[in-house]
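Worked example 4.2. Below are the chains of a multi-component assembly; read each line carefully before continuing.
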Amino acid sequence: MNRNESEVRLMKGNEAMAEAAIRVGIHAYFGYPITPQSEVLEYLMEEMPEDGGVVLQAESEVASINMVYGAAGAGTRVMTSSSSPGISLMQEGISYIAAAELPCLIVNVNRGGPGLGTIQPSQGDYFQSVKGGGHGDYRLLVLAPNSVQEMVDFVFEGFRLAEKYRNPILLLADGALGQMMEKVELPPAGSLPHVVPEWATRGKAANRSQNIVTSLHIEPENMEKVNIHLQAKYETMKVEVRSESLNTEDAEIVLVAYGLSARIAEKACDLAREKGIRAGLLRPITLFPYPEAAIGALAESGNVENFLVLEMNAGQMVEDVRLAVNGRKPVHFYGRMGGMIPSPEDVLHEIEKIVEHSSVKA
Amino acid sequence: MENTMISCENLVYDNHMHTLTGTAFHYCPGCGHGVAHKVIMEVVQEMGIQEQTVGVAPVGCSVFAYHYMNVDMQEAAHGRASAVATGIRRVLPDKFVFSYQGDGDLAAIGTAETIHTVNRGENILMIFVNNGIYGMTGGQMAPTTLAGAVTSTSPRGRDIAVSGSPIKITDMLAMLPGAYYVTRQSIHNPNAVRKLKKAIRLGFEYQKLKKGTCFIEVVSNCPSGWKMTPVESMKWMEENMFPYYPLGDIKLPAQPIPVNNN
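Applying the procedure described above to all two chains together yields the following structure tokens:
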């Protein structure tokens, strides 16, 4: 394999993401095995070149995320990955990383919960991902891939954004995206240059004052200033909002779904169109910042009568859709939980019920 | 902040070290932290490694260690200092990396990180200040609090049947192959401080060899938490702490390595 050139391969999501991590030039990966993402650590252990980054199996996800903190604070490009229970264990460290403004990439290959749950795919970690799973007022920039290709692309995009904003980036996938194989184009290595930041703790040069990586600001006046700064940063991050629209121009019903659910929703829209129902899809690609303007514009549209939010959880993102729609149109929800994946036919059935009910009312 | 809280009018030692920031310590009168900080930074200065040194501060009384130690530092979450130090050292393998941790941090909440860091033989220096109490939160029972000792969470004295025995984590760690140099020192008199400094010098020098973790326990005092005068606390430490935590080397490198003491 020549990593200096782009390459097209058939790969599993987790392995493609790990290959992307090598190509983006990570200096270190720290992780702990957990299904359904252990292939990331396995692949990196096998494939990381001799002169490449550090790959270390830590004693826990708690240790992993704190190793990420240390390596990110040392000004290197560093990542970790896990699945839901492991990501829960990392929340303390993620809060510290966000507060200390350290760039890094964290991958959650979401599985069914709560608790030990199941190893099957789920989107039950939406709240934890976008509302702040750890303590305090902080935000992660959350990227939600819906293909193996995007698992790869968002590793590069994730580090670009992390280093631009000095903020941890969460790549929120799920067990299906991690495990499924698709054709993927891998970008060449070296396409995202890394610059050692001046704030990094690498030894105090004689000509500068000490660099300190900390989240401790004991005086409330100072702590408030830090919070104001962070909130202002999160506002500027909103220009990174991304979503994708499919057939929404004439849609009477707009499905809103991200990740794997968006793949299912797309198929359900096709089935609905075959039955003469004008269905469209709005797919949030960034979950924070949330594409509220794109959804708001659809809520203003004269042809849109209903929204249907599809998630593999009990209804989490639907709250953000309702905030964006702000009462202008009905917002319905359909979801499966605990690792169950809804079928396009299930979703079509929901679409039909909503449209039928709507026309009866009219 | 520190300068407004603490007046320097009683300063008995004028600091000309460039490895200390010159900020007056916030520690209580008689506390051992200030001595430990100064000795570590003396070693960094004498070895001329300020530009190659990165420290990790804990959660505990020494949470503000970076206000005093004039080296690049990271503040770790409670108990996680050795994992943070691992992250730093792994990406900067030729730098000197040390963690500075208290007993609650290292031997209670951070036990897993402590054991596995040493077991991997991370090439870092871990400095473990054991004063047998949670100082910063106001004098609660620590994992190293002696049997029968009264604290705010053991008001009738530490009951071994309920809370277990004070943990001798340094002795435990010495059993791990990853531990290269393990010693227990103190700060209770000038001679002890000199020995501590020698140990810290070894701890830094040995990092160059990349042979494993150096671990130095510093048995220390907490006059405020122990509700004693500084002099009483030193005496109590000698009479009560040292019998349970005896001073001296616990694990020495298999083959003595000549160390340049210039």
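Take a moment to check your reading of the output against the notes. Chain A has two domains: 7-239, 242-361. The mean pLDDT of chain A is 97.
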